[in-house]
Amino acid sequence: MAHFIFRCPATSLNVQHQTDDNPDISENEYVGVMCPACTNMHLLNRKTGKLLGQDGE
Length: 57
Hints:
- This protein has about 55 residues and is mainly β.
- The chain has one domain.
- It has no helices and 4 strands.
């Protein structure tokens, strides 16, 4: 399992999430995750751990 920390866009809190670390995953594949900080659904890139629409930091 790969662990990611992303910043919730609604609360600006850091949230930890884990996904499978399959090397065959496309860089354009996103998965919906329930955010415990705001209880909304966010789309998380399974390869990079970035949210859909998040600028590169």
